[in-house]
Amino acid sequence: MLFLRLFFLVIASVPHPVDHLSFSRVLATHGLELRRSRTEILQLNVGKLCDLTCVHCHVNAGPKRKEVISRETVGRIVNWLTKTDIPIVDITGGAPEMAPDFRYLVEELRNIPQVETIIDRCNLTILLAPGYEWLAAFLAAQRVGIVASMPCYQPVNVHAQRGDGVFDRSIRALQLLNGLGYAQQPALTLDLVYNPNGDFLPPDQTELEADYKRELKLNFGIDFNRLYTITNMPIGRFAAWLRHNGSLDTYMELLVNAFNLASVSGLMCRNTLSVDWRGEVYDCDFNQQLGMRWRQEKPLFVWDLDPNQLEGQNILLGNHCFGCTAGAGSSCGGALVAPGRIA
Ligand code: SF4
Ligand code: SF4
């Protein structure tokens, strides 16, 4: 397809016995090169502060983390965005809403004419946390699309992954969002995210979405728009969990063996610019957590970039990238490949 010319910088981010099958070399065997296309999404990770400490978290987020975006950094990023034609801003964390300047950020983004879509990656529990009573109504008033973690429609799996009581709070939060018009009005999208509760690949996204819709509606009266299946990446807290269980090597082999060439053209690093809480740029949130800087010698901040120079730039790759190309592929927008195209 229209995309690829090969250029690789190999950064081995996950030491394991399949190092010799590095992601870069697998792509090279197919004669591919991976470069940025037009930037359509700025994904801003506003920090690592979170009310939860999920097992699968690649950010190592939690209530004691101190890394959080400042108002000055918000201002510099917003100012840079006004000079671009990027239409989508995807806010993530941590629990992004816990950043003290979250409200300011959203309001400033809403004032940028070309930013059509603002997404909040929400863990749902924060909507019911003390001190955040304003949050759900604020998101609805600002027409912020919500992408919410919901690893199962049954309590047992959610509790195992996210902690006791999280399922019930998530259900109440979803009902609250429906009551505010989410998944009822076109401007208020509510998408859910499934990720496996262990060291296996997600099931078929379309079939699972149908199961979620049926079960959540039947048992709790909940509506949502789309379900995204996302593969657990072998980094951060999930990598530590795999190591603890002695299954990191097996999991990497699973990802490598499930490599799907058809997923490569849709990799999110091609059209997404990832920015951290300090304003530094990365190819994706995973590279961000691994510290895979665009410029090794010193930080490169988004406000130092010429937005017109991004297209065609090379992408930093590591063996964790196998997590994005396994099976149906995986991205912040879910599976990359229709079921019939899984190798
Ligand atoms: S996975 Fe999301 S909700 Fe869970 S600890 Fe990480 S940032 Fe928080
Ligand atoms: S981890 Fe995935 S999104 Fe990030 S650079 Fe690798 S393939 Fe691209």
The DSSP helix count reads 11
Q: Under the CATH scheme, which architecture would be assigned?
A: Alpha-Beta Barrel
Task: Give the end-to-end Cα distance, rounded to a whole number of Å.
Answer: 18 Å
User: Which fold does the CATH topology refer to?
Assistant: TIM Barrel
- Count of distinct structural domains: 1
Strand content: 5-15%
Structural class category: alpha/beta
Question: CATH superfamily assignment?
Answer: Aldolase class I
Radius of gyration: 19 Å
Q: What order do the SSEs take from the amino end to the carboxyl end, as H and E?
A: EHEHEHEHEHHEHEHHEEHEH
User: How many DSSP-defined strands?
Assistant: 10
Largest beta-sheet details? 8 strands, mixed
The rough form would be described as globular
Strand order of the largest sheet: 7-6-5-4-3-2-8-9
Report the average pLDDT across residues. Answer: 91
What's the level 1 CATH class?
A: Alpha Beta
**Ions, cofactors and other bound molecules:** iron/sulfur cluster
Give the topology.
Blueprint: E1 9-10, H1 23-29, E2 41-45, H2 71-81, E3 88-92, H3 102-110, E4 117-122, H4 135-141, E5 145-149, H5 155-162, H6 166-179, E6 190-194, H7 205-220, E7 227-229, H8 236-245, H9 248-257, E8 272-275, E9 281-282, H10 285-289, E10 316-317, H11 322-325
Parallel strand pairs: 1-10, 2-3, 2-8, 3-4, 4-5, 5-6, 6-7
Antiparallel strand pairs: 8-9
Bound molecules: iron/sulfur cluster (2 copies).
3D structure, described in words:
- The protein has 343 residues and is of the alpha/beta class.
- The protein has a single domain (36-247, 267-318), classed as TIM Barrel (Alpha-Beta Barrel), CATH 3.20.20.
- It is built from eleven helices and ten strands.
- It has helices at residues 23-29, 71-81, 102-110, 135-141, 155-162, 166-179, 205-220, 236-245, 248-257, 285-289, 322-325; strands spanning 9-10, 41-45, 88-92, 117-122, 145-149, 190-194, 227-229, 272-275, 281-282, 316-317.
- An eight-stranded mixed β-sheet has the order 7-6-5-4-3-2-8-9. It has a two-stranded parallel sheet with strand order 1-10.
- Helix 2 (71-81) packs parallel to helix 3.
- The longest helix has 16 residues, at 205-220.
- Residues 1-17 have low confidence and may be disordered.
- Residues 267-269, 283-284, 286-287, 315, 317, 320-321, 324 line the site of one iron/sulfur cluster.
- One iron/sulfur cluster (SF4) is lined by residues 267-269, 283-284, 286-287, 315, 317, 320-321, 324.
